[in-house]
Write a structure and sequence with these properties.
Layout (H helix, E strand, L loop, with lengths): L2 E4 L3 H11 L9 H20 L12 E4 L20 H4 L9 E5 L3 E3 L2 E2 L5 E5 L6 E3 L12 E2 L5 E5 L5 E6 L4 E2 L1 E2 L2 E3 L6 E3 L17 E4 L8 E5 L4 H4 L3 E5 L4 E4 L5 E3 L2 E5 L4 E3 L2 E7 L2 E5 L3 E3 L9 E2 L4 E4 L2 E7 L2 E15 L11 E7 L2 E14 L8 E7 L2 E5 L14 E5 L8 E7 L2 E5 L4 E4 L13 E3 L2 E4 L4 E6 L6 E2 L4 H6 L6 E6 L3
């Protein structure tokens, strides 16, 4: 039988009312409180998926895409002369102030190369336009070849590394096998199972796969399945090593009202940029492709993949009203390792806001870091994480990570040279359950005036199990605290109105 408690006793339930809404007026337990948060999240997801089309300013240059009726030989200037593909769109030299409208209900495969000052959004009726990194639906029995291991099937995808395969829209997904090479003996092993591994012939688990993406390799995905996968599943999507939207350093980009799925890297990828807004979007099945081999001193490849990422400095970066789920690495992130020797060159991350998002089954719901060596003055400034509902960090797709053990809803990597911040606030969020911890916010740097770089925590709700890792908020250590009766007093030291709940599960 389940036993439920709220740290702080009855007042904790009252503290959740503002977050979860009037439906909690008669809540008597932490279970009821959590149920109200979940219900609020489900309502918000429905609202995000039903977000209406935005207005296009009169006189703005407009280009249209229609998967259903478009032609890449048309001019793209009207719904009747819409383009059909992302490939054609990417050839167009769009100017700042332009709007690119994708027809709802359409499926557009590829990576959108975002242009400075351009808004990308939806037109028409029906579900959001879908941008898929997957080059094709692989549920075609004729394209799967049985190998000399009768339970392993091959599919010619190419040398663009595949992060995972997603079956029947998410009913199941594949486990990617990466190879660990013993540094002394040079023997190779399946990193996931620990067994010796030399080639696809050594696959031995249902829906385990290995991609021979190497330049001198076959470019084929090898999947273990008792039956031809094209007969077994109605749809098979490949998360290849690409992005949904590649912003780079483009300024003034808005991405609104899309569903982005099956990309092996990032849903939205940006570098040093200004005024990037991502809103009303859904991101699912993001990441898993190999970033590089042998980095961080590892004897196996490192994988990556975030739903929305800025890597570098930024000024004006907003992610709001998005539903983000099944992400290999981070749901939303701003991060940068400033190179040693950069001197006093600034890479500030300013005016960052993540608000009203629902994030679940990401390894990190929110991740950030800014490394500043040799006295570099760069800092985060005016950073706000507000009214985000976050669930089950470290569960789902990301459970197949080789580098397990650090999942969190808000994650900042501790280092003596990281994360200087000013006017940084985390407020009115719900952080519910994590494989490892709920929150880990650290900074080894103070501001020039001596003030702390740690955030103010206001009105947040934490829901976990007693004895699990809570995480930490610290200037001096990333050491994990256990989630227990003393957690409420610990959190109270960093702001007002935070509430800690636990739901104790007994077998």
């Amino acid at each position: 039988m389940a036993k439920t408690n709220a740290f702080g006793r009855g007042r904790s339930v009252v503290g959740l009312l503002a977050l979860a809404g009037a439906c909690l007026v008669h809540a008597e337990s932490a279970e009821e409180a959590y149920a109200a948060i979940r219900a609020k999240a489900d309502r918000r997801i429905a609202e995000i998926r039903a977000a209406p089309n935005g207005a296009v300013p009169e006189g703005a240059p407009v280009r249209y895409l229609s998967e259903r009726a478009g032609s890449d030989d048309a001019d793209g200037k009207t719904p009747q002369t819409a383009w059909k593909t992302i490939g054609r769109l990417n050839k167009e030299p769009l100017r700042p102030g332009a709007y690119v409208l994708f027809e709802r209900g359409g499926l557009y495969r590829g990576c959108v190369a975002a242009r400075p000052g351009v808004t990308y959004t939806a037109w028409g009726e029906g579900p959001k336009p879908r941008v898929y990194g997957s080059p094709e639906d692989g549920a075609n029995p004729a394209k799967w070849e049985r190998t000399d291991n009768p339970r392993v099937w091959a599919y010619a995808v190419g040398h663009n590394d595949v992060g995972t395969l997603v079956f029947d829209g998410g009913a199941a997904h594949a486990i990617k096998i990466v190879i660990r090479t013993d540094k002394k003996t040079k023997e190779t092993f399946n990193k996931y199972t620990g067994k010796p591994f030399k080639s696809y012939r050594d696959l031995d688990g249902d829906l385990h796969f290995w991609h021979d993406y190497y330049k001198d390799g076959t470019g084929k995905v090898y999947l273990y399945s008792e039956k031809n996968p094209g007969e077994r599943f109605k749809s098979i999507e490949f998360s290849v090593k690409t992005c949904g939207f590649r912003v780079g350093g483009a300024a003034g980009v808005t991405i609104d009202n899309f569903t982005v799925k099956y990309v092996g890297v990032h849903g939205v990828s940006a570098g040093n940029c200004r005024n990037l807004t991502v809103r009303n979007c859904e991101f699912g099945w993001i990441g898993g492709s190999i970033q590089a081999e042998g980095i961080y001193g590892r004897d196996y490849p490192t994988r990556l993949g975030n739903a929305v990422e800025v890597y570098g400095g930024c000024d004006g970066y907003v992610v709001e009203d998005c539903y983000i789920w099944q992400v290999y690495d981070a749901g939303v992130t701003h991060q940068f390792n400033i190179p040693k020797g950069a001197g006093m060159k600034r890479f500030d991350q300013k005016n960052v806001r993540y608000s009203r998002n629902v994030m679940e089954k990401c390894n990190y719901s929110i991740e950030y870091f800014l490394t500043a060596y040799d006295g570099n003055p760069s800092r985060m400034e005016n950073v706000l994480f507000e009214d985000n509902l976050m669930f089950n960090a470290g569960y789902g797709f990301c459970e197949q990570r080789a580098d397990r053990g650090c999942a969190s809803h808000v994650k900042a990597w501790f280092s003596p040279v990281r994360n200087r911040a000013k006017n940084y606030v985390i407020r009115n969020n719900a952080m519910c359950f994590g494989q490892d911890v709920l929150i880990q916010v650290c900074s080894g740097l103070r501001n020039p005036d001596g003030s702390s770089s740690l955030p103010v925590l206001e009105g947040n709700v934490f829901v976990g199990r007693p004895g699990d890792g809570f995480g930490t908020v610290s200037e001096t250590s990333g050491k994990t605290r256990t989630y227990g009766p003393d957690t409420q007093a610990f959190v109270d030291a960093f702001g007002a109105g935070n509430r800690c709940y636990f739901i104790e599960e007994r077998k």
